[in-house]
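During the reporting period the student researcher (J.K.) took over the structure-prediction task from the postdoctoral fellow and processed the backlog of single-chain submissions. One of the processed entries is reproduced below for the supervisory committee.
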Amino acid sequence: MKRKISKRKQETLETRTRAPLLVDRLLHQDRRDSERYVHPKAHEQMMRSLRSSHRFVFDDEAAERLAKVVIDIPQLLVRERQFARAPFDTIWIEIASHRYWETLREQAPEAYDMQGEWGDRENADHTVGYLIDHNRVNTIVGGTVADPLGKIYISPLQYQIHTEWPLQDQIKFAETAQMSRLGITAFMWGSSFGFLGKDDVHDLRNETVLEFLPPNPAYPEQVGYLRRPDVIQLSMRGAVGDVRTIHALLLMLNRPSITQYRPVNTSRGWYRSKPIPYLSHSVVHVDLDAVKTLRHIGTPAESGITHRRHEVRGHFCHDKTARDYMRIAGCIHEWRACDDEWAVIEGKPKDEPSRWHCAACGGKRWWREAHERGDASKGYVIRDGYEVTVL
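J.K. obtained the following structure tokens:
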């Protein structure tokens, strides 16, 4: 007869067998491995942001589910791009990149086969992390499929999402990288580029700034190397589609209708034969039918249960009209940006909007900033990280 394991003992076993996350390894690696490529001040700022960030981790199955969203509904990424916002000011998103990459590869295997080593499974990135500090995004790669715990690499490319990129700066970057502006657009969309209409693709480029991390002046030969056009193109080749992926990740995290959370406590483990602390996080379950849910953007009403005092992620809210028309009539909302008085803004808004009105059903949507909620007399819950998996 099989012996039943108690819940507490099961959690203890899971803690003992838990492997370090990419963020754990990054915080405890020899900083000289990174500072050779990144200015010490920029590196220190990234490490501070990592320690204070709210962390989300997409495991293999969740990464595959994300890829299905990217493949099945690329037009939604265009239409809902403005709603791809981080739920907190500073977050870390870690994803099982090899599973995400493999699922995308299945969509067009011939195209990947033509990429040589870049289309080889063994050389595919094993884990990728995105540090989002307000609108600034840095990419960190950890290992390959052949060597999952291999070298950690901080990309010299840095993104500023939801930020206007002036035409003259686009031209300057294109000249430095020796590529066209259309090539920059294709770089941002990755494999989704060929599945979108010509009128759909350019806004992402105009609203995302590409720039480089400041190099370490203590290594002048490295500075010259990183600024060579062929090396810039090499860095960009390894980051094709990252901008699209970041938007897809944020859109999914902003859908409370397809995510559930379970907290995981801090623990200790081993990295490079040394004991290190593992960061706490919460497990986020992703609805298996995420594609269908994301097609009909809507947010369910909150429950009336009073919880302990806790942080609430920044999220989108919808009024009853928007929820009912989505649920009953299947309204695919046509959101139009509004000012603080709910008057529709004609043309492109000068500032980032926080309110929208549906031209089809008349429903309303607004962005609620991260805040605290709940009864402090019942205690306080601190959540500083999330692991994303599939129901």
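The committee noted the following: The first strand starts at residue 54 and ends at 58.
J.K. will present the remaining backlog at the next meeting.
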